[in-house]
Amino acid sequence: MASTVTDAADDAAPSPVTPRRRKHRVGRLTRGEKIVVLVMLAIPVIVDLAFVWGPALASVFLSFFKWSGIGGLALRHCRAPGGLLPDNGCFIGGDNYTQAATNYPPFWPAVEHNVIWLVVFIVFATPLGMLFAVVIDRGIKGSRIYQSALFLPVMLSLALIGIMWEFVYSPNYGLINTLTGHNTNGNLVDWLGDPHLNLWAVLVEATWRQAGYVMVLYLAGLKAADPLLREAATVDGANAWQTFWRVIFPTLKPINIVILVVTVIESLRAFDLVYITNRGSNGLEMLSVLVTNNIVGETSRIGFGSALGVVLLVISLVPISIFLYQNFKRKAER
Amino acid sequence: MTAAAVSERVRPARASGTGRARVGRILSYVLMIGATVLWITPIVFTLYVSLRPYSETSKLGYVSLPRSLTFDNYRQAWTQSDMLHFFLNSVAITVPAVILTLFFASLVAFVVAKVNIKINVALLIVFTAGNLLPQQVIITPLYRLYLLIPVPGFLSESGLLYNSIIGLVAINVAFQLGFCVFVLSNFMRTVPDEMYEAAVVDGASLWTRYWRLTMPLCRPALAALATLLTTWIYNDFFWAITLIETGSRRPVTSALANLQGQFVSNQNLIAAAAMMVAIPTLVVYVLLQRQFISGLTLGSTKG
Amino acid sequence: MAQSPTGPGPHLSRRGLLRGAAFGAGALAVPGLLAACGGGNSSSSGTTKSGGSGTNISFGSNYSDPAPKSAFAGLINDAKAATGVTTKINTTDHNTFQNNITSYLQGTPDDLATWFAGFRLQYFAAQGLLSPIDDVWDKIGKNFNDAAKSLSKGADGHYYLVPLYNYPWVVHYNKSTFAQKGYEVPTTWDSFIALAKKMKKDGLTPLAFADKDLWPALGTFDILNMRINGFDYHMKLMQNKGAAYTDKEITAVFDHWRELMPYLQSGANGRIWQDAAKTLEAKQAGMMFQGTNQVAAQYATDKKDVKDLDFFAYPEINSAYGQDYMDAPADGFIMPKKAKNTKGAKKVLEYIGTPEAETSYLKGDSWDVGLATGLVAPTYNDIQKKSATMIAKQKAVAQFGDRDTDPAMATALEHAIQDFIGNPTASNVQSLQKSLAKQAKSIFG
């Protein structure tokens, strides 16, 4: 497997030393060429704007309305309460946001859980993946087998992972409780049902997958690191620990940023595992599930769900901006 | 489960740090072998449950020696749930979505990387950032949008993008475009400009430069991305459960959640169904792992 | 038996407006950017396709557990023989179906669908998502009593549902366990608690209990509320009309529940009701409070001895209300506004609304009770016979906590109850009550 990643890196860059001269592009465009460019861009750009950016902006717009999704939307203020059905499809300003923060019990637990998720990914899953990568990179015997095994969960869908782990966690029959003798009715440990435990249980599932992902990314970075650097460091008398932190790690900066961004985004997106486990209730509230439950659940609160979506949007713009800044700054430097 | 891994995490490094390389080596083995066992346990355990009759595990629990192993659960899950139908749905979604994503993404990537227009960087930013948004940010309006857009009957039984295979293809294409544009444009940038200058001298049109010159050079990247996209789109859960209402139109990954409700009294059937759903990704894993990994790392190491 | 949860009230003008919208066939000229989203709903079927000569319809079904699924398939088979209409059944898992109902009805629903009676029917009817089926009721009206009729009507007085069956929420037990240990059926709260205590001493889980799916524990809330505070108060609370979650009446409900807590199977939030029913089947639990539609059906699914299963009405708590009320939800069938083959669909509905059809369905269903007047299906077992008499004796029946109130409020209440189950302290109850009252204000406001 070790060689695989090297190959992959080679595939990716047929000639890593190619001079990149941005300005030296193929000359000016003729009119015909301009039309061709327009045609080439038209569909993808429309698709991207219509299905991704359009809805993202519409989320912001809808978040100022009270709307059950039934009937139309009108640009008027909501009427006073009363009637079989409350007023609907009307403008209520920032009320959805106030309601979310002050009168929606799952909101703050969800924020807390998203933060815990992020912290666990950063302080546990990522270092674990990095450790795997470093050990494998040092070329111990059978590293190909280890890498394949650790990578396996990355291939599986999160929904499937959630289902598989239910067998491990099942209170009466499951692997853990049987092995630890907690499978009789008196002393059951309800891993996925107990609100004090289930977030951690699900985080083990998430880490199980994330660590393999991080490992693969770091392995690619480590392979790409110049072996001469390592040799030079060893000659200077640095031990493996020092070599890694002082010489190798700094060269991994681009990868670190990618992993940081991936980690934050994955923590915000966390959905499938908790949804498959208990639809994100009872200790597994996450922002993503709250958004979903408010629009596709029996309770259809489009405006409110949009407001929760906007909260996610605002938070996610932070890592996205970091990524873009780093990425395009580097490009500009070239 | 990972507690063992934690305690061992620090030691090997420190050990080698003091020069006891041998101890470090041994600890490395302990760590990797332990982790490997932990990592494959859930999958092997599910496989084991799926091979045992319900009557047996309901008495003895899942952790017990088997009296009999059988493929009955597989047969039953396959026939009772119409699994073939769901697999075909997945194919009908995944194949067009992968092809369209790669085609559209390569068009944009080519323009961004190799054509001198003013909005290059802006385009790239729009696509890249779009891919990083959590799906839930856009689902609410998207869902309303899907209920609005009519689609001719021969493409969608529902007459709308909502609840149709084509709608699912569309959102997968739109959402994956960003990543592919990013990766492909970085890749195309590594093609020397001199080649294009020579092509222009030879009178090659813009389209020829894209289709005949650039695309063949991108084959490794396209192959890697195709592997990655196939797995991701096949594994998609969120779009399918929100944008497809009718159970029978769902792809197999999200249909599994429905089966969980149906087979609630017989977990062994769920285990069998889960293993069957995993098979296509396991095939990719065995045959195309290299492509998959290079696809992942393309996005992170270059650019 | 049941009363319409929302009586006629001062909301006629608003309702008239809604009806206008629903029947306006796309003339719903609400300005605004996304007006067409909703307008499309009413236009697509309001004017067109009133016929559809085809003899094929599709039927969205939530009968997903194996036993009811096959009973439903039997009914549809007989419907085909009687009407000549071929029906394609689209089955969705029961919980998923319910969660998706709003999008389902607005999206591309089938020609007919399974749904619930009561406020939950009125809510969707009032939003113009269902087709009135008064012409069907012209033909089947004679088969049902007034209670069943009022359950099938929207708040506008039009019919929207053809009911099939209902079932009582009662305390189930195994006859053999009671005989063997000499337990007696309790009729009062004190004897109920005493029995539970005894069972615990005998090594049984007194009450099997599960709430992972969020709705089952609402049953306990409902029955305690109706036993302690009566039916009218319960309905006022559900409708947010003159009762609030901060009332001392609700504190009393939770106080009784806390008293019961030690006898309820622990870890309920992580257990599906099917697994709780299995502990009753295995005689590890002494009793289980749940609908016969769930417990008896689970016995049938697991091929356990339904003959050993028996039940009693929830014990009396407040003598003013005795054992006069219970949840006895009715299930039936609706025709979505967007149905395509309305002609075929109505034919099938007309068939379903007959005693023959109910008898045909009940051949495969040994736990529900048909709703046609005076129906005693030849296939009735003891459970069904007892259910029928017991429901008939009630002064009023409720439809169930998540059917009698606004869906958003039901969700809020369900989550509060899960929270309570995880932390059943007086102080937590107090904060939950406050939070519920506040949410009610925002949801109904």
UniProtKB/TrEMBL annotation, chain A:
Residues 1-25 are annotated as: Disordered. Pfam families: BPD_transp_1. Residues 111-323 form the ABC transmembrane type-1 domain. One of its GO terms (cellular component) is plasma membrane. The chain crosses the membrane at residues 35-65, 115-136, 148-168, 197-220, 302-325. It is found in: Cell membrane. It is a multi-pass membrane protein. Keywords: Cell membrane, Membrane, Transmembrane, Transmembrane helix, Transport. One of its GO terms (biological process) is transmembrane transport. Residues 1-15 have a biased composition (Low complexity). Belongs to the binding-protein-dependent transport system permease family. PANTHER family: BLL4140 PROTEIN. This is ABC transmembrane type-1 domain-containing protein. It comes from Actinocatenispora rupis.
From TrEMBL, chain B:
This is ABC transporter permease. Coiled coil: none annotated. Signal peptide: none annotated. Keywords: Cell membrane, Membrane, Transmembrane, Transmembrane helix, Transport. Pfam families: BPD_transp_1. PROSITE patterns: ABC_TM1 (PS50928). Its main location: membrane. The keyword Membrane applies. It comes from Actinocatenispora rupis. Residues 87-288 form the ABC transmembrane type-1 domain. It comes from the Bacteria. Belongs to the binding-protein-dependent transport system permease family. GO terms for biological process: transmembrane transport. It is found in: Cell membrane. The chain crosses the membrane at residues 26-51, 86-112, 119-139, 159-184, 217-234, 269-288. GO terms for cellular component: plasma membrane. It is a multi-pass membrane protein.
UniProtKB/TrEMBL annotation, chain C:
SUPFAM superfamilies: Periplasmic binding protein-like II. InterPro entries: Bact_solute-bd_prot1, SBP, TAT_signal. Pfam families: SBP_bac_1. This is ABC transporter substrate-binding protein. It comes from Actinocatenispora rupis.
